[in-house]
Structure formats: C-alpha cells, structure tokens
Automatic annotation (TrEMBL), chain A:
Top-level taxon of the source organism: Bacteria
Coiled coil spans: 467-494
EC top class, as a word: oxidoreductase
Family membership noted in the UniProt record: Belongs to the FAD-dependent oxidoreductase 2 family. FRD/SDH subfamily.
Domain Fumarate reductase/succinate dehydrogenase flavoprotein-like C-terminal residue range list: 454-584
Membrane topology label: Peripheral membrane protein
FAD-dependent oxidoreductase 2 FAD-binding domain segment(s): 7-400
Catalytic activity: a quinone + succinate = fumarate + a quinol
Entry protein name: Succinate dehydrogenase flavoprotein subunit
Transmembrane segments: none
PROSITE patterns: FRD_SDH_FAD_BINDING (PS00504)
Keyword line: Coiled coil, Electron transport, FAD, Flavoprotein, Membrane, Oxidoreductase, Transport, Tricarboxylic acid cycle
Cofactor requirements of the protein: FAD
TrEMBL record, chain B:
Superkingdom of origin organism: Bacteria
UniProt-listed PROSITE patterns: 2FE2S_FER_2, 4FE4S_FER_1, 4FE4S_FER_2
Name recorded for this polypeptide: Succinate dehydrogenase iron-sulfur subunit
Similarity annotation: Belongs to the succinate dehydrogenase/fumarate reductase iron-sulfur protein family.
Pathway assigned to this chain's UniProt record: Carbohydrate metabolism; tricarboxylic acid cycle
4Fe-4S ferredoxin-type domain sequence ranges: 159-181
EC number(s) given by UniProt: 1.3.5.1
Residue span(s) of domain 2Fe-2S ferredoxin-type: 24-118
InterPro entries on file: 2Fe-2S_ferredoxin-like_sf, 2Fe-2S_ferredoxin-type, 4Fe4S_Fe-S-bd, 4Fe4S_Fe_S_CS, Beta-grasp_dom_sf, Helical_ferredxn, SDH/FRD_Iron-Sulfur, Succ_DH/fum_Rdtase_Fe-S
Keyword match Metal-binding: yes
Length: 584, 257
C-alpha cells in the first residue's frame, strides 16, 4: 500500500473533473484520479450543445433559461441553483471559447446557436436558439479543450486509478472527509490518497440498464462509495430516457437532429409529436417525447416487423446540412445500421441516458450528509452530483452546462477550503475495506458469474423501471435485485492476477450497480406520483401536496449486519416560480 | 396532421429492421501476452457463435464474459468516440467498436492483436504514455497574447472550417501505431501529435504557430514522414492525416499558415 498526500484530490476526469482541476491546480496541489484516460471520459459522447442565453442569433435571456430549466425538471428543481446555472452559463461558454473550443460560427463570427428540446422564448411561446454547439460533437470538443487546458496548467493525473472507497472521519462530532482509496489497474496495488479536499466527479450510472447511451464504464462508482459510507443519495428514482437511441443498441442520436428539423414518425409516417406537444412538437422535453414514443409503440403504431421502434426522419433535410451539422450521428447510422440517412429514416427507441439524482450538494458543490449538514472538505459535481438543477427531468444541453458551471464552482471552493484547512487524520488501516473486497473477489470459489448477473440486472431494469412504471413492476425489480445481490456474494472471477485485472474491475463495478439499482427501485416505489422522468401508470398525475420534495436515501446497517434503505425527504427550494401544469 | 412520407422502404432499411439474427460460427485468433503467466506472447484461438452484424468489441466481450475472463483490452463508449479500443484487426488498425464482423470476412479466422510500436503490457493493452507525451510536447492548447476580450473571439466560418478536420481526433493512436517510421523509431512524434499541432497552427485565433512549427522542425518532427498514407487509412474518424502533415511541412517552408 502506498500513501499519497495532496491538498485537493479530484475523482474523475470528464468534463466536471477537468473543469474543477483547471481551477484547483492554480490554487492548490491537486491530483486527479481517473479509472480511464481523461480523453476517454463519456463527456466526449455528448453531441448537441451547451445551453447559454448568449442571444447571438435571436432575443434570449438567462431568466427564460431559468424558467425552462425549472419547468423541464417538473418543478422539482431547486430554483436558486437553476438561476445560478442559467446566469453563469454565459461566462461558462465564453470561458470555453477563450480556452480554444472551436464552436460553430454565425456569419458575423460569433458563436452559433441552435434549437433544442424544452428551450423556449418567453416562457414557452416557441423554440429558441440557445444551444451553443460544435457540429454534433460538442462534448468531444469540450472534453478535448478541457484536457488541452489541463496539459497547459500542468494538472497531475493518475490514469487508470480506480477509486473504490471514501474515507470519512468523525472529528469532534463532525463527519469530515479524510481521503480516498484507489486500486491501480496496471499493478493491482492499493493507494491511499490523503487530501484536505476531495471532489467526486466520476459520472453516471447508466450501465444498470441494457439499452443505454452510456459507456461500459459508467457504473456509479462515486455514488456507491459515498452511499456505502453512510451519505445519502438524492432523487435516484429520476432517470432520463433519451428519445432517440439507435434501436436495440442505444447509441445516442442527438436531439440536435430534431433541432435542425428532424421529425419523429410512426409506421404510418405520421408526425405523432403534434398530438402530444402542439407547440414544441418534436422539441418537447425528453421525458414527454420518450413517453409519446412508447405510447405509439404500445398502441400498435411502432415500426418494423415487431412494431417496437419509431423513425427519426432526416430525409427532408438537405444532405449539405446533415454533413455540416450532424456528421457524426449520420455516420453512426451508416456504420451500425447500414442505412443512408439522406434517404432512409433511422430506427430509434428511447435509451437510458442520464441520472438526474446523485450525491446531494449545495450550490458551492459541498456534499450534504443530510438535508442541511455539509461534510467539510467533500465536494461533488457533474452527473454524480445532485444540486439539484435538473429536478425530475434534465433539459438537453444543460448537462454540458452543469459540468462547466458546477465543476468550476467545486474546483474553486475545494481549493479555497484546502488552502486553510488541515489534513484529517487517516483511520487506522485505511485501505482495509478495499483490500478485503479485492481479496475476497480474487479468492472467491463461488459459482456465480459477473456477466450473467449483470445481464439479468439489465434486463430486469429495462423491463420494470424504464419509461413506464407501476407498483407491480417496481416490486418485481426490488425482488429481483435482492436476489441478484444475494447471488453476488458468490460471484467468482477467472483472472486471479494483479496486472490489468479488468475481470476483477467488472466484478467491483457490478457490486456498485446492484447497490444503486436497489436505491433507484426503492426510491421509485415510494414516490406515488408521476413527475418528469418518473412515470407511474398507477399514479399518472403529479402530486405537489405529497411529493413536491426530494428523496434522500440512506443505507442502514442493523445490529445483525443486515442492510436496508431508509428514505427521508428534503424540501424543494422555490424562489419565484409557482408550479404549473406542464405543457409543451 | 402532416403527410406520410415513408412510402419508400429501401432494402438497407428492411435489412436493418430485420431482427432475425442468424448466428454464424467465427474463429478469433487473439495475440495473448501476460508476463505474470508466460514470458512470451502467443496466439490463442476462440470459437464463438455470433451475429455478423455485431462489432468485434461485442465478440471480445463474449469471449471475456463466457470463455476466458483473463482476456484483457481497453474499451469504454463502444461507438467510436472515446478512442480506447484501437487494435490490429486482420493486420489493420481499427477501433474494435466500429468494426462489424460482417465487414471483415468472418469465414477465415479473424486475427486481433495489440497496436504496434508501443510496449504491450497485457494482451491488447499497450503503454500509452509515450503516445501522450508526444501529444503534450506539441503544446496542444490555444496560445494567445494580449488582453482577453470580454466576449468571444470572433472567427469567420471559413477560418473555423480551415482546421475542422483535425479537431475530430480522439487520440486513439490508430494512426501513429500504423506508421512504419514510428515502428522503427519511437522518438518520432508520430501522426497524431502532428494532427493536434495542425489543429492549433491553422486556428486563426492562435498565436503559437511559430513555436509549434519549430518543435516539429526537429529531427524527430514532420520531416520523418514518408507519406505512406497508412495513417490516413487507419484513422477511424476519417481525418486526412497525411494531408494535415503535408500542410504542416508546407507551412514550415513558406512560414505561411
């Protein structure tokens, strides 16, 4: 075991982690730990753009953006946080441009903007051009630009270091963060990083679904580490299903395709979104569009031999426009489906995309141990966190914004904290939990296999807690997950070595997915209403009287070692926007 | 209501929507190396039943998950944008997640080995550090002087287009490790680093072009390129890599960029 000491440690090197690192490296001795290489992070898969009311192409202002974000989140958004997000969006985009990001340009050389789902002029009047974009690879450009600037600032990376544990210590009755424990993939060695400030920026957890736009590596490692150490997870029942994933594969096809004029059609060729969202049509918010797609499919208007998908039709758009504005997604259609999007519609279905919930933080990125108490020295930003700016449903282009606004905030706050704070003493035998876990997996003689359990988990989640949920389906999921968690105790791996043991890594990741799937299902079962991405067929309406509140899920361990989940609730911060019925 | 437009259904669309997967039997011949087990690398064959519409990455997963958990490779996004899974498939550098089995003649054994010119650490995993060091050495970030503007820097659409091709790079190393010059001399910067220098040299907002050109004027710089076009063929993003290198060479001669 090796021990390292840094002022600030950042876990994860996607957009939020690297945006934080650029700030904290200037102010404090910083290490960034990532289980991949920074440029492999899934920020790079984001396509359509980053929202900011620059008003470069038409009238816009950040107040309209704030309103759209709150309405898009079905009023579960903390309104003070949404205001910060929309207000700081403008500088956030300009900062990236100054760092070198090659945005598409207007004829007069400013940053070009396009339409995106749920973003509107004057509180819902009509779609507005608010998404700042670089072709259909905005996320790629953000990831590259941030990495380039990390190189420029000399940010210190520990690549392929997989953080498995968060060390918390009780100091005079206050829970404080002391460090993290990481597993070095190349050697199998365990490293303890003692730090005054720690930022979790480790991304999402979409891999518990089968059809997902998420990378294989998005297994909720940060959320699971915090949860196992007794910290709450907020609003985990809210998961976004992006309307347009490639059928069966789940590969993302940007909403920007509809922003450029693409249309969703059923088997009769009908533009069905006109029925469900008369004003915004194909550019309604994602939860609305995904439900509409599945309604079409359930009512027998789906496409293909099994009627299990619909079409994204781009065939009426000029090929030059597709080449200039949507080159990557049209190439995906050619590569993976063998079709030509100039002339063929693209078979799509909703794909599990984004966790609105996560580790609760305040607007400075400080992690909360309950509804109000901050954990000194611990921060989170990006998809792993829940501020909450996305509420029950995130608007497209608000996640690239979130990672930049709150990544920056967390980076500054953490570095300022570590400038004055002392190190918290490490617990005795700090690596024990991780060492035991790794040894147990390596030496297990059980008869369960990682791939089989993961497959059963993913199939169960797709079948029971996706776009439509009922008490019965959620209960089925809860029972199945309990069974899988039991079987996971007997999981064994084949690779017993120390060098690049990805077999071991996948087993650890599965453990994280199982923990988080359980939290999601249990949180969803208790929320007896429909709001944003959480749709209960048995409770089809939003219930502001009983459920205008955030879910806070805690892991409880009984005296006999038995585990359970305790649910609590946290009020939503409301400033100036009264909840209204949501129509697009 | 709008008019239906989907009266025409191409054969390609019908094929894409036909889910009746017909599994075929394929042999994967994989170059294995694990110094914890044996000093030398060796080929190992795996048989599997798989839908030819699936990716090589899917096949590697099936082998790892169902047959041999010790098979080791890097991957993440699985659709060609993260750059983790560049490998040599049937002797050509490709991304395993962008290569469909039907496109590489599954009737004969499909060979898979690590990319060449970087030290193999285990199976298909190589040491990427020299590759990223070359990237860092070309100063891959916007260099400007003077006061920052309050708003964005202006750039015309034409100026933006000038370097569009090289912004697509995902640093997968497929180009660099297909280059015979790089195989023979690991000191050569390699195509990917030059591509990333190009991305800034030809950006109208950048003022570090001269510095980068001097770095690439070095004995291990652009002049080592022998224009074999392997890099262009290998690039999974379709970047005209050789052309970018030629443009950097020309800029060095004319000092105009």
């Amino acid at each position: 075991m090796k021990i390292h000491k840094y002022d600030t440690v950042i876990v994860g090197a996607g957009g939020a982690g690297m945006r934080a690192a650029i700030e904290s490296t200037k102010r404090s001795r910083t290490a960034v730990l990532t289980k991949l290489y920074p440029t492999r992070s899934h920020t790079g898969a984001a396509q359509g753009g980053m929202a900011a009311a620059l008003a470069n192409v038409e009238e816009d202002n950040w107040e309209w953006h704030t309103f759209d974000t709150i309405k898009g989140g079905d009023y579960l958004v903390d309104q003070d946080a949404a205001e910060i997000l929309a207000k700081e969006a403008i500088d956030s985009v300009l900062d990236l441009e100054k760092m070198g990001l090659p945005f598409n340009r207007t004829p007069d050389g400013t940053i070009d903007q396009r339409r995106f789902g749920g973003h509107s002029r004057n509180h819902g009047e009509a779609p507005v051009r608010r998404s700042c974009y670089a072709s259909d690879r905005t996320g790629h450009m953000i990831l590259q630009t941030l990495y380039q600037n990390c190189v420029k600032e000399g940010v210190e990376f520990f690549n392929e270091f997989y953080v498995l544990d968060l060390l918390l210590q009780d100091v005079d009755g206050v829970k404080k963060s002391a460090g993290v424990v990481a597993y070095e993939l190349a050697t199998g060695e365990i490293h303890v990083f003692q730090a005054k400030a720690i930022i979790f920026a480790s991304g999402g957890t979409g891999k518990f679904f089968k059809v997902t736009s998420n990378a294989h590596t998005l297994t909720g490692d940060g959320q699971a580490a915090a949860y196992r150490r007794g910290l709450p997870l907020e609003d985990m029942e809210f998961f976004q299903f992006h309307p347009t994933g490639i059928w069966r594969m789940g590969i993302l096809l940007t909403e920007g395709a509809r922003g450029e004029g693409g249309i969703l059609r059923n088997k009769d060729g009908e533009r069905f979104m006109e029925k469900y969202a008369p004003v915004m049509k194909d550019l309604a918010s994602r939860d609305v569009v995904s439900r509409s797609i599945y309604t079409e499919i359930r009512e027998g208007r789906g496409c293909g031999p099994d009627g299990d998908h619909v079409y994204l039709d781009l065939t009426h758009l000029p090929p030059e426009q597709l080449d200039a504005k949507l080159p990557d997604i049209t190439e995906f259609a050619r590569t993976y489906l063998g079709i030509e999007p100039y002339t063929d519609p693209i078979p799509i279905q909703p794909t599990a995309h984004y966790a609105m919930g996560g580790i609760p933080t305040n607007v400075e990125g400080e992690v909360l141990a309950d509804n109000t108490t901050v954990v000194p020295g611990l921060y989170a930003a990006g998809e792993v966190a829940c501020v909450s700016v996305h509420g029950a449903n995130r608007l497209g282009t608000n996640s690239l914004l979130d990672i930049n606004v709150f990544g920056r905030r967390a980076g500054i706050a953490a570095a300022e904290y570590s400038a004055t704070a002392d190190f918290v003493e490490l617990p005795e035998d700090p690596a024990k939990l991780v060492a035991d876990q790794v040894e147990r997996l390596r030496n297990s003689t059980g008869n369960e296999r990682v791939a089989e359990l993961r497959k059963e988990l993913q199939e169960c989640m797709d079948a029971n807690v996706m776009v439509f949920r009922t008490e019965q389906t959620i209960k089925t999921a809860v029972e199945k997950i309990a069974e899988l968690r039991e079987r996971y105790r007997n999981v064994a791996i084949q690779d017993k070595g120390k060098r690049f043991n990805t077999d071991l890594l996948e087993a650890v990741e599965l453990g994280n997915l199982l923990d988080l799937a359980e939290v999601m299902a249990v949180s969803a079962l208790a929320r007896k209403e429909s709001r944003g991405g959480h749709y209960r067929e048995d409770y089809p309406n939003r219930d502001d009287v009983n459920f205008m509140r955030h879910t806070m899920a805690y892991r409880e361990v009984g005296a006999d070692g038995s585990e359970s989940i305790r649910l609590d609730y946290k009020p939503v911060v409301q400033t100036r926007y009264q909840p209204m019925e949501r129509k697009y | 209501m709008s008019t239906p437009t989907l009266d025409k259904h191409s054969a390609a669309l019908d094929a894409a929507e036909n889910d009746a997967s017909h599994l075929i039997s394929v042999t994967f011949r994989i170059r294995r190396f694990n110094p914890e087990v044996a000093e030398d690398a060796s080929w190992q064959d795996f048989q599997l039943e798989i839908d030819p519409k699936e990716r090589v990455l899917d096949a590697l997963h099936k082998i790892k998950w169902d047959q041999d958990g010790s098979l080791t490779f890097r991957r993440s996004c699985a659709h060609g944008i993260c750059g983790s899974d560049a490998m040599r498939i049937n002797g050509r550098n490709r991304l395993a997640c962008k290569t469909l089995i039907k496109d590489i003649n599954p009737e004969k054994p499909i060979t898979v080995e690590a990319i060449k010119g970087l030290t193999v650490l285990k199976d298909l995993v190589v040491d990427m550090e020299p590759f990223f060091q070359a990237y860092r050495d070309v100063m891959p970030f916007l260099i400007t002087t003077g006061n920052e503007p309050t708003r964005e820097r202006r750039q015309s659409a034409e100026d933006r287009e000038r370097f569009d091709d090289t912004t697509k790079c995902i640093l997968c190393a497929a180009c660099t490790t297909s280059c015979p010059v790089f195989w023979n001399d690991g000191q050569y910067f390699g195509p990917a680093a030059i591509v990333n220098a190009h991305r800034f040299i030809f950006d109208s907002r950048d003022e570090g072009g001269e510095q980068r050109l001097e770095i690439l004027n070095d004995k291990d710089g652009v002049w080592r390129c022998r224009t074999t076009f392997n890099c262009t063929d290998a690039c999974p993003r379709g970047i005209e890599v050789t052309k970018a290198i030629q443009e950097v060479k020309r800029a060095l001669i004319t000092r105009r960029f």
